[in-house]
Amino acid sequence: MNDLTNKQKVTIMIAIMTAMFFSAINQTIIGVAMPRIIAKLGGMDYYTWVITIYLLTMAVATILVGKLSDIYGRKPFLLAGIGFFMVGALLSGFSQDIFQLIIFRGITGIGGGMIMSTAFTAVGDLYLPRERAKWTGAMSGIFGIASVLGPLMGGFIVDNLDWRWVFWIFLPLGILAFAMIFKLFPKVPRREGETIDYFGSFFLTVTIVALLMAFSLAGEGAGKYSWDSWQIIGLFGLTVVALIAFMITETKVKTPVLPLSLFKNDIVTVSNIAGFLLGMGMMGVMIYAPFFIQGVKGISPSGSGYIMMPMSIVMVFATTFAGAFMTKTGKYKGLAIVGLSITALGIFLLSFITIDTPIYIMISYLCIVGLGLGASMPVFSLTVQNAVSLRQLGVASASSQLFRSLGNTMGIGILGAVMSSKMVSGMKAAFSSGDMDASTKLPPEHAKQVGELMNPEILLDQPRLEQLQNSLPVEIQSVADQLVVTVKDVFANALTTAFFWGGVIMVIAIIFAIFLRVIPLVSAGDKMATMQKVEKKSE
After folding, report:
1. Contact 28/154 with Cβ under 8 angstroms?
2. Which residues contact 180 (CB under 8 A, 6 or more apart)?
3. 276-291 pLDDT, tens digit each
């Protein structure tokens, strides 16, 4: 694509960012809406699977498409990704229960993986690393803008419309994105001499699926298995066997789906590990902050969107600054360390909030997290692309997206297991301390109603909670109120424990970022100067 004019490149980038915004807004719009959707469909014990299945299918699609797009070009996979995403979003709105929603979100994840893998790689096709930094920051800013608009619209929809419109409202934007990519994105010829690594793709898929399922299924609650159960041990065993088979396969095929030589480059390895840990830690905020706002503080989904909005706005400004800073200076390591440190600080501060913490304090902590995420998120994709040749750009970019997706999914599994374990122990402690004794001495006709208040799921549906409390006789209102406060305290303690371990994960990410080796970001000016030097020497 070197023969394209700057105007053509900018036009193509607008089309790419439209596709990315379509994908991103469909993710952020459901964040604050999911607690209410779960309250309507039921199945809080399977809540994480709605997110996990998306990340799982996204991870598989990301890495497989990364290599295929190196062979066939980015355009067909961008178009296919938008198509899968639209079908998945459409079907998600027709879900009748939690299990249908999980399946349809899996289809959506396939599209999301295709879009993200090819979109970030396409920037590498169009621009050299120094100029790439500006666009990488702008693309990360797309997520920030989506993070501002999504929660507001998601909260408004579930408060005022049928929740299904959360999935349907932006489908016209998908059609527009498809049309723009189809018309504007250039088609490139198939790269000769390349073959598809079917066996490697199969073993890699099994490795990823088995690993993510192990972390998703482990824990306590319905549909979960203990960490030492044969099911979880078997999945980890399958992961190891499939990984060994994959590594053997990659040493023997002509064009491996994920070349192991890629990880001999220490910059790629360290960047991917740091991105993996960043993905794990940030899930503690993105997933569980709306739970705290709605379940513990008792704020509506739309109100939750307003509370999350300042963090997203700060993130937009931070990503824009990060891209401009890297473009101007060519430096990135200090930015990564500072960004991760700020993120860790914000998450640790969130681990100290309680049911009595003022909302403005929580907003300030979320803004700190947004500042850190905005500064650090654009860095690691750029460092991976800057460290490899143009021939490996697609698969290297896909590896970066893969590790971040793996981090997201494993973060949900690990932090979710921490939260569930803390919830169980907290409820047991509340019973043993006598906090819930009064609820066990109620007349049978009221015991069932009050018993519903002991399910944390009721905290996520405030209209239902108020209706239930108001339907109880006046003489047992105090018992119900005490029970709700106790459950909120347990819920808050479980969520803040998850925040704490999210902060610990971010500290580990900082340690890896310290060891990130720095190589200069090449600009168009640098390339021109090098060419002029070569020409002078040849004269």
Report:
1. yes
2. 14, 15, 18, 19
3. 999 888 876 777 888 8
Sequence-ordered alpha helix ranges (H) in 47-197: 47-72, 75-92, 98-126, 129-160, 165-168, 171-184
The letter for the amino acid at 352 is F
Token representation of residue 313: 């706005």
Which CA distances in Å does 157 have to 97, 294, 398, 489, 501?
A: 19, 15, 34, 29, 32
Helix, coil or strand: residue 218: strand
Rounded to two decimals, the pTM is 0.74
Q: What is the DSSP letter of 296?
A: I
CA distances from 366 to 143, 153, 274, 459 (A): 16, 19, 21, 22
CA distance 151 to 26: 10
- Comparing CA positions, the residue from 448, 423, 459 lying closest to residue 439 is 448
Amino acid identity for residue 519 in this structure: I
Q: What three-state secondary structure class fits 225?
A: strand
Which residues have C-beta within 8 Å of that of residue 291, sequence separation ≥ 6?
Answer: 35, 460, 491, 495
| Cα-based torsion angle of the residue sequence 127, 131, 135, 141 in order, rounded to the nearest 10 degrees | 160
pLDDT at residue 313 greater than cutoff 70: yes
DSSP notation for 35-51: HHHHHHH--GGGHHHHH
DSSP-based three-state secondary structure for 346: helix
How far is the first Cα of the chain from the last one, in angstroms, to the nearest whole number? 29
Residue 434 zone, left/alpha/beta (φ > 0; ψ -120 to 50; rest):
left
The residue type at 40: K
Interval 356-380 mean pLDDT:
90
**CA triplet 355, 449, 489: central angle to 5 degrees?**
15
Residue 445 confidence (pLDDT) above 80: no
Q: Scanning the structure block, which residue is given the tokens 């909120």?
A: 488
Q: pLDDT value at position 280? A: 86
Residue pair 381/136 in contact (Cβ under 8 Å)? The answer is yes
3-state secondary structure of 226: coil
Distance between CA 126 and CA 117 in Å, rounded? 15
Handedness of CA 29, 31, 32, 37 (dihedral sign): positive
SS3 content of the chain, % helix, strand, coil (to 5): 80, 0, 20
Half-sphere exposure of 93 (CA within 13 A, CB side): 19
**How would DSSP label each residue in 367-421?**
HHHHHHHHHHHHHHHHHHHHTS-GGGHHHHHHHHHHHHHHHHHHHHHHHHHHHHH
C-alpha pair distances (Å), 287 with each of 144, 259, 418: 16, 33, 14
